[in-house]
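Weekend entry, working from home. Most of the wet-lab plans are on hold until the incubator is repaired, so I used the time to fold the two sequences that have been sitting in the queue since the last round of cloning. Logging both here for the record. First:
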Amino acid sequence: MQYIYIIILCITSYLLGSIPSGLILGKIFRNIDIREHGSGNTGASNALRVLGAKLGFFTFVFDFLKGMAVMLFLWAFKLEQFYRLGAFNTEILYGALAVVGHAFPIYLNFKGGKAAATTAGVIFFIEPIVFLACILTFTLTFLKNRIVSIASLITAGVCLLLMISRQLLYSLFPDFLFFGFTDKSLQTYALEALVIVILVLIILIRHISNLKKLGEGLELPFRKKKKNR
């Protein structure tokens, strides 16, 4: 029976991840289908460009929360039997399925967002200190060139590097252990690193069109709106 519930939770995480936050907010508040504007995807960056700062922000928040929703539910209600399997803590698998749902949503013929915001939600729950490093990386990169795709890809690379090397980093800087879930086995560290590799690959695949535009000089940066005097 335990594994039946695990399968149900996996499906639930994918279906939650598939909810197109940007599309829904655009339809409700602007009567706009954001798939017909900007980059055509339903993620937070296109919502920001098409719908404006406020709705773009809420799109990011909803997409972010999708990544951690099932994991947070299991943790809050102490349902460890559904993610502690032997030496493995498999929470991240639920988050990964939410990312898959966001990037390839069943509701929209498997054409969704770029997966960065939902992956950020997963990282925040799994390793908060890595999340903070990623936020700093994204912010500094974006402020320099104001191109979301570049900032997202560089941040994904930094995240991958930190997640793979974090056990070594924690051994060198043990004080940082307080900020993460430290009761992890070697098997769990390995599983989480492998899942992050897959998630970064998904982010890279979803950004192929952006890379082509960058190569052609067509990827436009966000510009500050000039104030009317």
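Second, folded right after the first finished:
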Amino acid sequence: MKKIVSKIMLICFVGILVVVTGCSKSKEGDAQGDGKKDENTVEVGILHSLSGTMAISEVSLRDVLLMGIDEINASGGVLGKKIVPVVVDPASDWDLFAEKSKELLGKNKVSAVFGCWTSVSRKSVLPVFEEYKGLLFYPVQYEGQEQSPNIIYSGATPNQQLIPAAEFLMSKEGGSYKKFYLLGTDYVFPRTANKILKNYLLAQGVPPENIIEEYTPFHHQDYQTIVSKIKRFSASGGACVLSTINGDSNVPFYKEFANQGMSASACPIMAFSVAEDELRAMDTKFLVGHLAAWNYFQSIKTPENFKFVENFKNYCKANNLPGSNSRVTDDPICWSYTDLYLWKAAVEKAGSFDVEKVVAALSDTEFQSPAGLVKMHHDNHHLAKKVLIGEIRPDGQFDIIWETKDLVSPEPFSKYAK
């Protein structure tokens, strides 16, 4: 793969995804409040990277939250108040996430914040939310080993994504794989996720020499050497890749994988951070047959999901968002949307926007999400939900090839993390 071509592709693709402002009646920019509050409105913060390496994934979370806010406002708001979103751009800068959080909680005094993607951004803001006693809804799968009274974790815990994916690959149905290349971006989630995966695989009898672990920095572009290693590792058969690569680095990785003649039939990639939204920026003809483990796919066939997908596509078109003709839904988009409605339900149950009362009201709350019924755990701030494994189709969507029968109760603290 030629580096120059790859960089041009990335610039173009990310440019398509970064959405222009002005598509919603929201406060955007530096979140500087004037101290005056309209008693008929309630402000919430949206804390997602609209620029930088993570924009490829996070812009759509901003969009679906604005759509959900419009829906709720159209139906009367929350406790009779219209929601006003305060949108900020931490620009894929982890320190800036903390700074923007302080502005949202200290200056705007928002009732709740919806945001973050990477674990390093979440960990950056966690002490801020605990200090200001704010409330953050975090919608992305993560490594677990955390529980804060001020964070609601709607993304998957390790036992709702990592472990089921490894179990599937080792099963006869999943291909009976015996060699595992753990490849990730060098930060908290991949490091801890791979520790969990490695310990699990070792506990299942996989020899240490059949497990390789490697990391690359954010925005890494040149995967020629790494793919060559994977090619040698998989030459004797029975090998797969467990990928925790995040952000726009996925584009050159999959491209190089195909350039070196690697395919899903020879060595499948099981991704934990690639979904339909990232696939929009990739040539899917090279990706057919590779896998992903999530708790939601756009291809779920339920009335609730059909409506959700249609509404999001229509919202993007109606607001003339760039790439509106190709917009899709995916797992983090689903949980961002669900987070907003969980917050609404809890506020109405509590009869208050007070954080402690809202958190208490969330306990055991059920919601019919686009992914199906989910239930908030009674005390650990995580969602019980089904686990799905999908196979990439030529159109960038997923065929769901495996799923759990029942909801999987969240276990944020994995025994394999020790």
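Plan for Monday: verify the second prediction. Residues 55-74 form the longest helix (20 residues).
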